[in-house]
Design goal:
The chain is built from two helices and no strands. It is mainly alpha-helical and 65 residues long.
Length: 65
């Protein structure tokens, strides 16, 4: 009986240690992925290109002619 109780205690401790290690590994991996995002990642809206403004200016000039 004493042997079975010791085996159950070791098994429970091992399972808890594995779960704690997996949780820590998952948290660290998630943090690394957050840090690996490029510094140029910009989530603002995209501004119209210069070509679009040039096209609008050309159309406005053509309408006046």
């Amino acid at each position: 009986m004493n042997t079975m109780l010791g085996f159950a205690a070791i098994t429970t401790a091992t399972v808890l240690a594995v779960l704690a290690a997996l949780a820590l590994d998952w948290l660290l991996l998630r943090g690394v992925f957050l840090l690996m995002q490029p510094a140029t990642a910009d989530r603002r809206t995209v501004q119209p290109a210069i070509e679009h403004g040039t096209r609008l200016a050309a159309q406005a000039y053509a309408q006046r002619r």
